[in-house]
Amino acid sequence: MAVYTDVSDEALEAFLSDYAIGNLVAFRGIAEGVENSNFQLRTTQGDFILTLYEKRVNAQELPWFLGLMQHLAGQGVSCPQPVASTAGQTLGTLAGRPAAITTFLPGVWPRKIRQEHCRPLGQALAQLHEAGRSYTPVRPNALGPDAWQPLLDSCRAGADAVHPGLLAELDAAFTHILPHWPGQGANPALPHGQIHADLFPDNVFFLRKTVSGLIDFYFACTDFLAYDIAICINAWCFEGDGSFNVTFGRQLVQGYESVRPLSAAERQALPVLARGAAMRFLLTRLYDWINTPPDALVTPKDPLDYLKRLRFHLATETVDGYGF
Ligand SMILES: Nc1ncnc2c1ncn2[C@@H]1O[C@H](COP(=O)(O)OP(=O)(O)O)[C@@H](O)[C@H]1O
Ligand SMILES: N[C@@H](CCOP(=O)(O)O)C(=O)O
After folding, report:
1. How far apart are CA 40 and CA 53, in angstroms?
2. Residue of the nearest CA to atom 2 in ligand 1?
């Protein structure tokens, strides 16, 4: 579960006294999520989410994330909207942690991904990219290619115990990713802007067949827009046995392109971006797998799911191999 920090009744009451959101009716910790502590807050004015920011979030970057959500919501994207205190602040401190209240979004995330989720997902992603164009502050991707080698280095001692030969396999995989990465060396860059960078199924709410909300913007950053598609291909378009679902991938890309057509360069770059996305999630999962104590509240996610994806991308040299 993901409630790392306890909030006492007294501390909550003092925190809420700075907001004009009605009187507290109910308050409960939310078990889902792995990064931050989230609580559902019900007041006489409705439902809200209270988030206490934990280890991976740099407090100095919170105004960028909250500003992005505010901006996207203003552009019509259904995402959590930060609620300002009576003093006009969207960021406060609770139980010694940076904390914010955001609006509650209706809907549920798909526990089993079906074809009909993928086209609306692609559309929602492209709408997010279009809406982000007018948000000008830049946040470099802290988990981009420059971070991968140091992350793997920090896992050197434990990697092969997770899977024999993993270290050598990942070292070799870098040579098929980094020299080919857009913007590196002589490789041309791609259109860039604000990306979500973690749009996994548990961050996309649906009501029937429609996307009702996107959440969890705390990995969002300024990077290649097509990299966000590559992340979604990894997160949404593989079966439990590690095989790629061509239909899901096609629906995702077609949905995206119905809002924002891809350039030829972006399409051609999808295979290397997909390799990079698989590497990025493999590495953070590997780090968490090795470093999470057995008695921790959170169950780390399996890094080897992403090894299967990475192998598929390494064996698929051109975008035609994906059937898009
Ligand atoms: N704005 C929101 N509206 C409704 N539920 C939310 C909202 N934000 C978070 N949640 C709930 O909290 C859970 C964890 O949120 P998430 O942002 O994914 O946490 P973490 O950053 O810790 O991974 C979600 O799966 C969802 O149930
Ligand atoms: N999506 C990442 C982990 C981040 O978890 P989230 O709950 O913040 O989406 C992964 O699956 O490795």
Report:
1. 15
2. 104
The pTM score is: 0.96
- CA 38 to ligand 1 centroid distance, Å: 7
Tell me the H-state helices in 82-208. 115-132, 145-154, 156-162, 166-174
Ligand with an atom nearest the CA of residue 40: 1
- ipTM for the assembly: 0.94
Give the ligand 1 atom nearest the CA of 54. 22
pLDDT digits (tens, 9 = 90+) for 257-308: 999 999 999 999 999 999 999 999 999 999 999 998 887 777 899 999 999 9
Between CA 133 and CA 253 the distance in angstroms is 20
Question: CB-based contacts of 129: which residues, under 8 Å, 6+ apart?
Answer: 193, 194, 195, 225, 228, 260
- Taking the CA of 198 as reference, the closest ligand is 2
pLDDT at 45: 97
**DSSP characters over 48-69:** EEEEE--TTS-GGGHHHHHHHH
